Amino acid sequence: MADRRLETNTAAPAAKLAPLPRDFYCRESVLVAEALVGKWLVRRLDGVELIGRIVETEAYDAEDPASHCFRGPTPRNRAMFGTPGHAYIYLSHGLHHCLNVTARDTLAGGGVLLRAVEPLVGIEIMRSRRGREKITDLASGPGKLGQALAIEPALYGTDMTTAGPLFICDGGGTSVTVLATPRIGISRAADRLWRFIDAQSRFVAGPRRLGRSG
DNA sequence: TCTCAGATTAACT
DNA sequence: GTTAATCTGAGAC
pLDDT tens digits for A83-139? Predict the structure, then answer.
């Protein structure tokens, strides 16, 4: 897999950063979560591009007791009941802004939490925003990702299928070894293997094993 | 209106 | 391994 490692911090040509189409998100959130591993998350901020390669995701939907949309629409989660492919941002523990992209084959509610990315472009800006030097500590967690990529409430509901301030593109298009594991930090439906990680990435935030006992 | 749990992180021991 | 920081929604009364 050394052939597909991407250590560069050189900006990719903007023309190649075409957002993934709406159809990509109009599937079961689990399928979208798995497919997003290896894609590039693009954040445009004050004319600067911050790009990270997605290495860790989690799927949630309305039938999932661990999901924010399990109990139906509220002012906070309304985005997850709208058209797939939009940003759902929530404040975790009153401190951290976490980024989801809405995804579902119906409008019943669902989304994919982006938990970690491998910084590719704008690394120095991310370092500055995070106040950390270690590249593996810049976006290896949902709250860290939010801080590094300037994920803020103003981005709530952003259409991520257009080349705006926030979107996801196919990126390198290289194949990825995706591993399914239990989700992190939840007590309900904790046995579902709805967390997806790049098995080879050192930027994954949590454990790489399948269950509590291995 | 009050209380509690929660899709987290970083500092401290 | 433990704990503090801090906001939101849900449920109980």
Answer: 999 999 999 988 899 999 999 988 888 999 999 999 999 999 999 999 999 999 999
Q: Is the CB of A121 under 7 A from strand B?
A: no
User: What is d(CA A68, CA A186) in angstroms, rounded to the nearest whole number?
Assistant: 11
Answer left, alpha or beta for residue A47, where phi above 0 means left and psi between -120 and 50 means alpha.
left
Closest listed residue to residue A39, CA positions, set A62, A66, A12: A12
Please check whether strand B approaches the CB of A102 to within 7 Å: no
Q: Which nucleotide is nearest to A132 (CA to C1')?
A: B10
Q: Which helix (H) or strand (E) holds A25?
A: helix A22-25
Q: What is the pTM of this model?
A: 0.90
d(CA A102, CA A106): 11
Q: What positions of strand C are covered by protein, i.e. any atom < 7 Å from a CB? A: 5-11
Distance CA A30, CA A83 (A): 17
